[in-house]
């Protein structure tokens, strides 16, 4: 079940929220757990047992680790947990024998962070099985993140409060995320899809496709993250942010501090720093970065394009770290062009299914094939989706948020801020419902990870 | 102050909450409809539940289809989406449909050469197996899509001349009757793909002249509906007024006998019951029937006509029938070409291949 579906929005969510808020405090985690298991089973009934088994391993291991700190048995429990979690991930994700269980990359990383943090003494092992289950399978973040670490929600799992401002904040965040996904990402997805369907492509349209794809991935994933964060807020949790206007970055280093922040943070804390991080010699640093970024790419899937995508960023980051960073940060304007160019190219690699496709698509963009500059058909689609593209570019900057904040402040003077907010959110919700009712194009890109 | 902070946003929570729960309750309690009046199609029903279907995920997929199809205010929401995309987001089409000069048109681009080849191969099969070495006279005509007359900046359209040339070259055994200059945009419905019967009398007469027969020119126009909403209306989902739907009749047509060979029964020229059905245009000759004959007992000639046709043929066939003693309509979308010989004898008739450009460009339905 994806958030941007009629089933989730108008059948599942209303019942769950009602039951959750009616339930007594002690039963809330139980309600959330049952709802989350139902949510997961709706999309992947066969793999319910896998997620349950993985959590049980994590639960038992963490208890053993905590009880046997600095002992061999504690370390063995840690290795067993890591072996099982990574083993399941590798078997299901990187072998083609079995279909990919939904959300496995996300919940595996969450469990790993949990047992490692217990081992490091950063968090206490959760004794209440329901609470641990609730942490891992909590439906807002189960299938597409953000990758919530146990330490982020440890307190809230045991004791959390609910309030009108929190619910309002959650509703607002969820509806905006839904709008980003349904009103923008899906439309950009349609445009990107046209690229593969037109009779004759063109150089201009190859660029339009590349830009649309880069923006689609951003709106799709950040919209989903917004929805997850919003739902978490309604339920009394504060999930970590996952995106912070990555396309306004001045370097790729900064881009990765703003893009899929919870994944970057996870690799930093559980792979990069244990390998020595930056406090090593240049040679070792290069190796560390290449390993981390190849793994980051591979986390997205078993295809070569993901490995190349990760490696591509690894190389860019190495160049920046060793030579370029201080220059590009001061090169106003040029640094933005550089980041946008580099990320658009990266998402061409990301969006291409095969190595051959990467070559063809890049060749198309740079006029290395026999494509015309523009054709009648590609001009049509460029014009047709031109305004959507323009809106999505503007929306990827903080401008809309700034204008929204200003408008809210102005409305606040006349005590109309709540009215204005309600009207805007109601409009977005109606438009999203209209698109879901009529739309046929509603893919969710990060579902496959 | 503390109280103010605690209740800040309560209005937002109440408004969105009421709206959200109101719609959700409607989703739960609204009785399922069998068909969508506006879209003229059956709607998905609540799926049957079983362990097997749950485990395979089939139930969940079908439930989402059901939730989408049975959504309360579905038609209004569809219209909202189209208006938002076309007005706010300046999108030029919606699901391939667009609104221009008061007409809904469909993008049909580019010229699908393999589709045209497939159609002409079917026609060649008919010629080789039934027509060659007979004394029939063969004609071919193409009815252009209305977007031929409704060109708009940026909207791509294929070269209709290329289609005509290709068809003429592939059907060298047929005389081409060019009707492109006999039609104009106003001859088509605003909300449907077809032309209006009351507007094509001149075109039919011209075709008759080209086939050396004289057709009637005078008809009574009978208005059978003033709320006709065609197939494009359903696909676009934009709110539009219904159109007037007419059928033509005169003393000749009133005497004609129509026989439906598919179901083995006599039928009326116009089926007024179809006005209440999924596609009111099916009023003309009962819509998609594979084999129909129209016998004209007051014809001034013994000549017969066999028309290989698509749905456009349904409204023009009655007009052609006024000039022939018998018109046979064959629709190879429903009657496979290799079975035609069992039902039709080819002997000294005029044979007309009359197809719309849209069927030729999307000919996979021809059998």
Largest interface: A-B, 54 and 49 residues
User: How much of the sequence of chain A is in beta strands?
Assistant: under 5%
Query: In angstroms, what is the radius of gyration of chain A?
Result: 23 Å
Q: Total number of helical segments of chain B?
A: 12
* Silhouette of chain B: elongated
What is the terminal-to-terminal distance of chain B? 77 Å
Give the spatial strand order of the biggest sheet of chain B: 6-5-14-12-13-11-9-10
Q: Biggest sheet of chain A: strands, sense, closure? A: none
**How many domain regions of chain B?**
2
Assembly annotation: heterodimer
Mean pLDDT of chain A: 91
How much of the sequence lies in strands of chain B comes to: 15-25%
Please state the average pLDDT score of chain B. Answer: 91
Extended strand count of chain A: 0
Number of strands of chain B: 14
Give the class of chain B from helix and strand content and strand pairing: alpha/beta
In short:
The complex is a heterodimer of chains A (449) and B (367). With 449 residues, chain A is mainly alpha-helical.
């Amino acid at each position: 079940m994806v958030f941007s579906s009629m089933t989730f929005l108008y059948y599942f969510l209303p019942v769950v929220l009602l039951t959750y808020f009616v339930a007594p405090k002690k039963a809330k985690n139980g309600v959330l757990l049952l709802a989350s298991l139902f949510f997961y089973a709706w999309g992947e009934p066969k793999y319910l047992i896998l997620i349950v088994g993985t959590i049980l391993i994590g639960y038992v291991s963490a208890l053993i680790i905590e009880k046997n700190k600095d002992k061999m048995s504690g370390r063995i429990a840690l290795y067993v947990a890591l072996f099982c979690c990574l083993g399941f991930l590798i078997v299901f994700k990187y072998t083609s024998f079995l279909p990919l269980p939904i959300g496995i990359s996300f919940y595996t990383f969450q469990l790993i962070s949990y047992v490692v943090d217990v081992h490091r003494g950063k968090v206490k092992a959760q004794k209440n099985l329901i609470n641990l289950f609730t942490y891992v399978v909590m439906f807002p973040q189960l299938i597409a993140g953000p990758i919530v670490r146990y330490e982020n929600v440890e307190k809230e799992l045991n004791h959390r409060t609910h309030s009108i401002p929190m619910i309002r904040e959650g509703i607002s965040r969820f509806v905006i995320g839904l709008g980003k996904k349904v009103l923008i990402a899906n439309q950009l997805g349609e445009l990107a899809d046209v690229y593969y369907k037109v009779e004759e492509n063109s150089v201009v349209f190859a660029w339009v496709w590349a830009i649309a794809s880069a923006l689609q991935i951003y709106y799709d994933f950040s919209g989903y993250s917004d929805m997850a964060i919003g739902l978490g807020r309604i339920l009394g949790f504060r999930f970590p942010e996952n995106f912070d206007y990555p396309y306004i970055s001045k370097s790729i280093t900064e881009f990765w501090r703003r893009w899929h922040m919870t994944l970057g943070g996870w690799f930093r804390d559980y792979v990069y720093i244990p390998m020595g991080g930056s406090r090593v010699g240049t040679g070792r640093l290069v190796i560390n970065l290449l390993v981390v970024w190849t793994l980051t790419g591979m986390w997205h899937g078993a295809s070569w394009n993901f490995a190349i995508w990760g490696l591509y960023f690894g190389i860019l980051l190495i160049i920046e770290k060793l030579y370029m960073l201080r220059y590009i940060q001061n090169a106003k304007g040029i640094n933005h062009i550089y980041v946008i160019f580099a990320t658009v190219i990266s998402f061409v690699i990301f969006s291409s299914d095969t190595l051959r496709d990467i070559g063809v698509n890049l060749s198309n963009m740079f006029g290395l094939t026999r494509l015309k500059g523009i054709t009648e058909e590609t001009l049509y689609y460029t014009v047709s989706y031109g305004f959507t593209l323009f809106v999505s570019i503007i929306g990827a900057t903080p401008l809309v948020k700034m204008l929204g904040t200003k408008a809210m402040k102005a409305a606040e003077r006349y005590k109309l801020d709540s009215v204005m907010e309600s009207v805007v959110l109601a409009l977005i919700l109606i438009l999203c419902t209209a698109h879901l009712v009529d739309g046929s194009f509603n893919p969710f890109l990060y579902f496959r990870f | 102050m503390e109280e103010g902070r605690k209740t800040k946003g309560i209005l937002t929570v109440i408004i969105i909450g009421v709206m959200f729960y109101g719609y959700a309750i409607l989703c739960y309690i609204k009785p399922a409809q069998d068909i969508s009046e506006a879209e003229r199609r059956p709607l998905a029903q609540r799926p049957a539940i079983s362990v097997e279907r749950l485990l395979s995920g089939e139930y969940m997929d079908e439930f989402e289809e059901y939730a989408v199809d049975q959504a309360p205010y579905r038609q209004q929401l569809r219209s909202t989406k189209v208006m938002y995309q076309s007005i706010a987001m300046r999108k030029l089409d919606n699901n391939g449909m667009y609104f221009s000069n008061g007409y809904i048109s469909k993008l049909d681009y580019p010229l699908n050469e393999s589709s045209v080849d497939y159609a002409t191969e079917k026609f060649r099969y008919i010629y080789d197996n039934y027509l060659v070495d007979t004394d029939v006279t063969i004609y071919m005509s193409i009815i252009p899509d209305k977007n031929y007359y409704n060109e708009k900046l940026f909207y791509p359209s294929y070269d209709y001349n290329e289609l005509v040339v290709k068809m003429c070259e592939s059907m060298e055994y047929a005389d081409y009757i060019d009707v492109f200059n006999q039609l104009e945009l106003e001859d088509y419905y605003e909300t449907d793909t077809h032309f209006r019967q009351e507007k094509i009398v001149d075109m039919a007469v011209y075709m008759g002249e080209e086939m050396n027969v004289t057709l009637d020119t005078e008809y009574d126009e009978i208005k059978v509906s003033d709320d006709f909403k065609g197939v494009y209306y359903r696909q676009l989902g934009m709110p539009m007024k219904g159109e007037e739907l007419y059928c033509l009749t005169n003393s000749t047509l009133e005497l004609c006998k129509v026989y439906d060979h598919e179901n083995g029964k006599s039928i009326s020229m116009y089926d007024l019951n179809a006005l209440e059905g999924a596609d009111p245009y099916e009023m003309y000759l009962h819509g998609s029937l594979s084999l129909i004959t129209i016998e004209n007992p007051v014809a001034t000639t013994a000549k017969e006509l066999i028309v290989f046709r698509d749905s456009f043929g349904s409204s023009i066939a009655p007009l052609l029938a006024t000039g022939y003693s018998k018109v046979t309509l064959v629709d190879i979308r429903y009657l496979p070409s290799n079975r035609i010989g069992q039902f039709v004898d080819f002997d000294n008739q005029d044979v007309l291949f009359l197809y719309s450009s849209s069927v030729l460009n999307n000919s996979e339905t021809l059998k």
